[in-house]
Amino acid sequence: MELDVRKRIILKAIIRNYLETGEPVGSRTISKYTDLNLSSATIRNEMADLEEMGYILQPHTSAGRIPSDKGYRFYVDTMMEEKEREADEMKELLLQRQDKMENLLKQVVKVLAQNTQYATMISAPNTRRNKLKFIQLSKVDAAHILAVIVSEGNVIKNSLLDVQQELSEETVLKLNILLNTHLNGLSIEDINLAMIADMKQQAGIHSDIVGEVIDAVAEAIKADEDLEIYTSGTNNIFRYPELADQQRASELINTFEEKQQLTGLVQETLLEENGTGIQVYIGNETPVQSMKDCSVVTATYELGEGMKGTIGIIGPKRMDYDKVVRTLRNLQNQLDVLYREEDK
Amino acid sequence: MELDVRKRIILKAIIRNYLETGEPVGSRTISKYTDLNLSSATIRNEMADLEEMGYILQPHTSAGRIPSDKGYRFYVDTMMEEKEREADEMKELLLQRQDKMENLLKQVVKVLAQNTQYATMISAPNTRRNKLKFIQLSKVDAAHILAVIVSEGNVIKNSLLDVQQELSEETVLKLNILLNTHLNGLSIEDINLAMIADMKQQAGIHSDIVGEVIDAVAEAIKADEDLEIYTSGTNNIFRYPELADQQRASELINTFEEKQQLTGLVQETLLEENGTGIQVYIGNETPVQSMKDCSVVTATYELGEGMKGTIGIIGPKRMDYDKVVRTLRNLQNQLDVLYREEDK
DNA sequence: TATTAGCACTCATCCAAAAGGAGTGCTAAC
DNA sequence: GTTAGCACTCCTTTTGGATGAGTGCTAATA
Predict the structure, then answer these.
(1) Would you say the CATH fold of B132-221 matches that of B5-67?
(2) How many Å does it take to go from CA A42 to C1' C2?
(3) What pTM does this model have?
């Protein structure tokens, strides 16, 4: 059996209605809701077909129908195609310029959660391919050296190093010059062992410090790559009864608190690049187990070349996909603009 | 009427039992539970008295009794006294040394939440009275200067400053010296306007930068004082039916997400210093509105003189006060030890 | 052949009444 | 002062209609 035009119209009507109400929708409703001028009985026949084909299902024998994951998938796919053509007149999200990356990200998730009424997450941009801009060692006290590492996009990391014996100010200065001349402009992938050996040799008796700094650089650039995830609007899940029962709510909240559970989502999204960078995961499609009763919409954002991060919106399956996708696209643009300004 | 010995025993038995079960406790239970060898009827008489005195209450006419806030208060106060004498044989919480304050705090709340099965929070140590150890300005690129501010306890803050016109390396060096000679060893309260004016004058045409740096220092040391709060174990509230209904859960989770709602708790705790630094807020006693159905146990911790922070444990009123207080005391010690090691 | 009216049937939900049970307060006896 | 006994309260659970939304099927209709 195939999905003819009329079946499509009916399926869409069912889904639209369910997105609004969250209640199973019956044949009579559709009969009135659409302008097909068909009786409820005819609709019932079509619905039986749609159910057989797996697009909708009945919670129990004498209830209306709700969309299945397959149904949502159909809806999202065709909706996306149609909307692609439309102009995007979405109003701006109120983003203020932030000097620190962390604050920017926190602000983004928060604004996004407020705008969509869903739970949101954002991962800090992937800095692996990011280039080192600047290293600064400073003597803090007799036993500690502070390494400040700035990479492109003005991402700043600190690391406090223990030193065995006190270094003179001149030594610190020399090390600074040594490190900067060798490392500036390189990404973490560019730094190889030969280079490190070379630097260590030049550092002479202070070669151990060089080693520590290199480690710190690696650490700073890479380490919490998967931990820097911010979330907001967690308690929005209570707006949707289908997610608000204790079992589910508890699991979801746990996932949002233990942020490393969200890394799966980030990785998945960065891998599966399609044109727009926006992806929709419905129910079991999501890579995070605890979200199998949710839908997840993700977007990759880019701050200059190589600095990619992931934004995610998590809500019930009857999410307003349309609005969410538009909002995310809008956000992508704004972040892009923000970056260019930053750079000017 | 006074609280004679027998009434105390009965009251404690009621509370103990309620802490375990979370159900109203009846006279027959107490009659068996205690070794007073009294019949349920006698217990009933005593319970009637206790209710009249306000220590316990009946959810409805034919139910058992549950402790009132006043009852909990009595229990906590006397329990504390008794336990004060006991040796503390609590097992160590598994804290690993962390180089960054942020990581340490995150670890502490997490371990604490896992150990107690309640929701936990910690505020970063108050840095207001903290002394400036070291300031480092570095030229990042033509338009940006990076200010790194290190204060006692090796708390590091960064701030990226825009500059109108490019500064030479020498100028940056001069400014560094100027700032460090003037400001090192001072706390934020020590920095006055005269001093700032003096520095600005010495900086000549670069006085605006000095102003910006001072602002950054103030900002860095003070600003997110009330924002640096970490939480963990939020979803533990679902373990306790009396907190797990949607209304309450949603509010609590929101409070934990919007961390500035927790500042009230931090301030309150730092003010009301008693001997041990441990405080118990029962029900309405808590300064945070959304926790009026919870009990909150807070502890101040200290990392060296002046660096005080607050730890909080939030759970149902029938919290295991005994264990919580012991755990917190234990943690206070461990943090103290950790700090001394750090400092060595 | 596609559509529709009509009808029997299912099943969640609501409501009231009944049953059960835990626990109390009171009284009278010990 | 303590306790056994009993009537009483009130929550909780169960039960059994009644209601209503919605379906599937069949037979009539265009």
Answers:
(1) no
(2) 9
(3) 0.86
